Amino acid sequence: MRKLFPIFAGIALMIMGVVACNLPSSNPSQQNPSTIMTAAALTVQAQIPPTVAFASPVATTFTPVTPPPTAIPPTLPPPPTPTPICDNAQFISENYPDNTNVAPGANFTKTWTFKNIGVCSWTPSYAIVFSNGDSMSGPAVQALPGNVNPGQTVDISVALTAPSANGTYKGVWKLRNAAGVVFVNQFWAQIKVAATSSGFDFHTRAASASWVGSAGAITFGGPDTDPNGFAMYRNGQRLEDGSTPSKVLEMHPQWVDNGVMTGIYQPYTITAGEHFLAKIGFLAKADGSCGAGDAIFQLSYSATGSPPWTGLGSWTKTCNGSLQNVDVNLSSLAGQNLRFALAVLANGSSGQDWAVWVSPRIEIP
Asked: Cα–Cα distances in Å, from 97 out to 169, 170, 191, 214?
């Protein structure tokens, strides 16, 4: 029995050892730190790409570029000498520049200045010729005033008349040589016709006019009992037609049969388109009725204010309850500086010839 115990004891120890190896450990196993670090290093190394081998740089050799030879420009022939022009003109100046205002019917002289820049002399056989547009009563052909040598200038003038109607007018001329060849294609006169008038008020200026009756000079303003007649304002007084105008000029002739009263006015220059305008008649009596007025009204003019006088109109008027209109076109006198006269003549007896001019004036209607 003692001999078997050691055998069984040895077998029991072997079984306990096997069981002990398969039981969980009471303490976690401790791994060697160096073993862990070695494994990590191997993992990182596996992720690094392989090292690229770079070739050593090779020095580049530059070969200088030789510039091309400078081009030599070809020799150009000299420009041809221009052929001299026989007839040639240069415009220098003009009066009445474009759109200058000119009164209707007014006469004016248009002048152009040209320089002869050709090599031929201009002679009186050269001329300006009307081409187109409004001739304004200008010439169809007009010779040059004289010889014009190369380098010289000349004034070429034409007498023109502005049309009577307002508007813009243009006339075109050309310059031609002795052979009839045009060498200045066109030049022109262009104007604006616009009637302007300062006007002349015979009523307002009556106080400065010269007044003469049959017996000699009188003073303007009355009295209305002067036997030599009188001239005075009757503004606002009742007239034969019942009206009471604000501008009334009474002219009573000398108190004799066929007596006369005349007023001579200061000079005035007529503008084309102007008219003399007025109404003529008589003052009414105190009760508003007509008197026995019978007179001749006259308008005349003189360049000097002395005879001879040229009549522009004469109107015989009796007191009949109405006024008479007077309208005289003065365009034929445009540009003239004239003195005008108003006159009243008794047509027989001068009794009750309370003759009046209502708003006598010159204006463009």
From this structure: 13, 11, 8, 53
Which candidate, 201, 232, 234, 228, places its Cα nearest to that of 212? 228
Q: What SS3 state is found at 241? A: coil
Mean pLDDT of 145-152: 96
CATH class of 200-363: mainly beta
Which residue's entry shows tokens 């010159």?
362
Model confidence over 18-45: pLDDT tens digits?
444 444 444 444 444 444 343 433 343 4
* Beta carbons of 177 and 126 less than 8 angstroms apart: yes
pLDDT tens figures, 91-141: 999 999 999 988 888 899 999 999 999 999 999 999 999 999 999 999 999
Compute the distance between CA of residue 113 and CA of residue 108 in angstroms, rounded to an integer: 16
Same fold, 89-193 and 200-363: no
Contact 325, 272 (CB under 8 A): no
Q: How far apart are CA 46 and CA 63, in angstroms?
A: 49
The burial class, CB within 10 Å (0-12 / 13-18 / 19+), for 87 is: buried
Give residue 184's pLDDT. Answer: 84
CA–CA gap between residue 345 and residue 251 (Å, rounded): 9
Q: Where are the domains of the chain?
A: 89-193, 200-363
Query: Given this structure, which CATH class describes domain 89-193?
Result: mainly beta
**Tens of pLDDT along 175-205?**
999 999 999 889 999 999 977 778 999 999 9
Centre a 10 Å sphere on the Cβ of residue 201 and count the other Cβ atoms it contains: 13
What's residue 166's pLDDT? 85
CB atoms within 10 A of CB 287: 6
Give me the helices (H) in the chain, please: 4-22, 33-47
